[in-house]
Amino acid sequence: MIGLYVHIPFCDAKCPYCDFYSIKAKTDKKEKYVQAVLNEMKMCGGNKLANTLYFGGGTPTLLEPIQLEKIVKCAVETYGLSYENEITVESNPNTLTDRKLFDLKKIGINRLSIGVQSGIEAELKALGRKHSLDQVEKAIKSAKREGFDNISVDMIIGAPGQTIKTIFETLDFVESLDVQHCSFYQLKIEPKTPFGLNKPNNIASEDEIAEIYLTVVSQLEKIGFYQYEISNFAKTSRECVHNLKYWNQEEYIGFGPSAHSFVNGVRYFHDRNIDGYIDDVIKVEKEKVLDANFEWIMLRSRLTKGVSVSELEKRGFWNDDLILKIKKLEGAKYIEWKDDRISLTPAGMMVQNAILLNLFR
Q1: Could you tell me which of 51, 150, 257, 357 has the fewest CB atoms within 10 Å of its CB?
Q2: Is the dihedral of CA 323, 327, 332, 333 positive or negative?
Q3: 189 lies in a domain?
Q4: Is 306 left (phi over 0), alpha (psi -120 to 50) or beta?
Q5: Could you list the residue range(s) of the whole structural domain that residue 302 is in?
Q6: What CATH number does the domain containing 34 carry?
Q7: Quick one: pLDDT at residue 290?
Q8: In CATH, what number is assigned to the domain containing residue 338?
Q9: CB 343 within 8 Å of CB 305
Q10: Are 13 and 129 in contact (CB under 8 A)?
């Protein structure tokens, strides 16, 4: 079963740290865009069945529910998606009105991923966010009233002004929301963003970021979230099924400008251009996966369950030199080797790339 990803590139305003492809939402372009997505979905369908659908962005909830419904129905009809499968929509708290939530539930959305980013008002302002903590609380309470019982919140590690003290306050806020999943992503300063052109001067140092990350991992476990991936934490059985496809190197198809696909060992991706996509939806770039085994270990090592020795043997990695390196990193508390499984510790996850290059290159 494949995953379906639909990129909705509309935003009310661009956050200063965001490098995802998005444009200002315009009513006339929304309908043309939805039609282009439907055209591509039908064109790519036929011999693949899907069991996840994920609307990312941008801000997908800036589309009208009836527009999202068209895409959901197309996924059901073209890819055999079931309304019992995981159907996720990303959203900003200030877009989740009572009416919008009622309509989203009605059309088949059963998982919400809400961009909260921080539990501190001053940090939200520094990140250029347009919502308040009060709006977050109201949106989640309303979502629960409408029957949503699979809610995730996205948070940021390394926001301007963030400290160990404020991350504890953010974690308290997350606990108070009583959601089923949360993601804590480290802020990355991308070159062409406003933050990249004018970096804030009150961002924590690398050592402070490391301390904040380890604090997040430790404290989330205490309040019932177990870590299953570098940046993702879930309560029992509430992992994001769609995102696990990426890390398990399973197949997925992405629709829309900047969306990526992975099918039959080949990666496809659309250019970051909505007008080009609307005018010529067939035009995609391709790239062959040059080192599938290294990509496999890179993706799989993001997961806390890690890999098994037998998997490493099957892919030709296992040898005496690798064993010595693993034991050295185990002694340094970067790797855990338990029975047949080898995985990165939280400390190891912070330097994943360096560890993989040391072990496998």
Answers
A1: 357
A2: positive
A3: yes
A4: left
A5: 292-360
A6: 3.20.20.70
A7: 62
A8: 1.10.10.920
A9: yes
A10: no
The string of DSSP codes covering 212-274 is HHHHHHHHHHHTTPEEEETTEEESTT---HHHHHHHTT--EEEESTT-EEEETTEEEE--S-H
CA distance 345 to 295: 20
Number of folded domains that form the chain? 2
- Token readout for 131 is 């919502």
The pTM assigned to this predicted structure is 0.95
Same domain? For 41 and 166 the reply is yes
What distance, in Å, lies between the first and last C-alpha atoms of the chain?
Answer: 32
50 and 199 both lie in a single domain: yes
Domain stop point among 180, 214, 247: 247
The answer as to whether 280 is a domain residue is no
Token pair belonging to 37: 């997505």
Measured from the Cβ of residue 99, the count of other Cβ atoms closer than 10 Å reads 11
Residue 315 lies in a domain: yes
- Note the helical H segments in the chain: 27-44, 65-79, 98-107, 121-126, 133-145, 164-177, 194-197, 206-222, 241-247, 274-279, 292-300, 309-314, 320-331, 346-349, 352-360
Q: With contact defined as beta carbons under 8 Å apart, do 171 and 223 qualify?
A: yes
Has residue 214 been placed in a domain? yes
| Same-domain pairing of 204 and 77 | yes
Average pLDDT estimate for 239-243: 98
Residue 20 · residue 68 · CB < 8 Å:
no
- The predicted-structure confidence for 207-225, as pLDDT tens digits, reads as follows 999 999 999 999 999 999 9
